[in-house]
């Protein structure tokens, strides 16, 4: 059994990492998987199981609990001289509740958008299309908070593409990332198939967008550069 987890961040405190509660780990194998172990052609890869477990934040004051379910996969490895054989069984998560953060969310992000982003962290493991769709919904919620109308005066829905265009009239430099998020979200809604790589890239560009648009990181940096230049760095606070 693989005992090492990636350094998943705690979804609650954001400071601790999640550690496996070993006593909570249960793995089961269905009857056909067990019966196949007697097959003379048996390969370790056939030994697929299902698991459930709890993860606990390693910061004692937080101690947040995450539940995880998924499948196990066994892989065979041989030593360089082929004299020894090792079988490693790995956990492949399909859902985490709540999901470990896959990007930073600035606190100033509208709470409805934050909720949709967090839902995508849970969905990421088992249903990437749904995770992409949740990100698309979070963009709708951000546009809501920006006062971009979702309906016409006559009550008809305004498409997300048209809402992003309206947003772009005010903030053209921030429009392209939202369009990219919309495209990936559409893929999730219609094809249901978004690659892991494309989705991880989406989190990366969204994090950067939120840092700059919502967190005003660029403006803060420009302000610091100006302060340093104007004072030639001669200040203490
Ligand atoms: Zn924590």
Please explain how this structure is put together:
With 237 residues, the chain is α+β, with helices and mostly antiparallel strands. The chain has two domains: 1-98, no CATH class; 102-237, Four Helix Bundle (Hemerythrin (Met), subunit A) (Up-down Bundle), CATH 1.20.120. The chain has seven helices and four strands; from the N terminus they run E-H-E-E-E-H-H-H-H-H-H. It has a four-stranded antiparallel β-sheet. Strand 3 (65-78) and strand 4 form a beta hairpin. The longest helix is centred in the middle third of the chain and has 18 residues, at 128-145. The radius of gyration is 23 Å and the shape is globular. The termini are far apart. Zinc ion (ZN) is lined by residues 10, 12-13, 16, 57, 59, 62, 64.
Task: Write the topology of this structure.
Layout: E1 18-28, H1 31-36, E2 49-57, E3 65-78, E4 85-97, H2 111-123, H3 128-145, H4 160-170, H5 175-190, H6 196-213, H7 217-231
Bound molecules: zinc ion.
Zinc ion is lined by residues 10, 12-13, 16, 57, 59, 62, 64.
Small molecules bound:
zinc ion
Please tell me what the overall shape is: globular
Derived structural class: alpha+beta
Query: Whole-number average pLDDT?
Result: 91
Helicity, in percent?
Answer: 40-55%
Using brief descriptors, characterize the structure shown:
237 residues; alpha+beta; Four Helix Bundle (Hemerythrin (Met), subunit A); 2 domains; four-stranded antiparallel β-sheet; 20% strand
Task: Give a short summary of the structure.
With 237 residues, the protein is of the alpha+beta class. 41% of the residues lie in helices and 20% in strands.
């Amino acid at each position: 059994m693989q005992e090492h987890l990636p350094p998943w961040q705690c979804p609650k405190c954001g400071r601790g990492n999640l550690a496996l509660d070993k006593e909570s780990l249960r793995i089961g194998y269905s009857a056909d998987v067990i019966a196949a172990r007697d097959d003379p052609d048996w390969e370790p890869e056939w030994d697929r199981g299902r698991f459930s477990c709890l993860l606990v934040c390693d910061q004692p004051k937080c101690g947040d609990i995450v539940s995880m379910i998924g499948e196990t996969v066994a892989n065979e490895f041989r030593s360089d001289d082929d004299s020894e054989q090792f079988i490693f069984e790995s956990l492949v998560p399909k859902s985490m509740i709540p999901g470990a953060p896959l990007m930073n969310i600035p606190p100033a992000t509208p709470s409805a958008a934050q909720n949709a982003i967090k839902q995508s962290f849970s969905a990421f493991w088992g249903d990437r299309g749904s995770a992409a769709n949740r990100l698309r919904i979070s963009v709708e919620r951000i546009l809501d908070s920006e006062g971009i109308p979702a309906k016409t005066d006559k009550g008809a829905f305004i498409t997300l593409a048209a809402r992003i265009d309206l947003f772009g009239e005010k903030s053209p430099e921030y429009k392209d990332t939202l369009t990219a998020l919309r495209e990936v979200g559409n893929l999730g809604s219609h094809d249901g198939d978004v690659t892991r790589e494309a989705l991880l890239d989406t989190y990366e560009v969204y994090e950067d967008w939120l840092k700059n648009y919502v967190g005003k990181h660029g403006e803060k940096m420009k302000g610091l550069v100006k302060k340093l230049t104007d004072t030639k760095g001669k200040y203490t606070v």
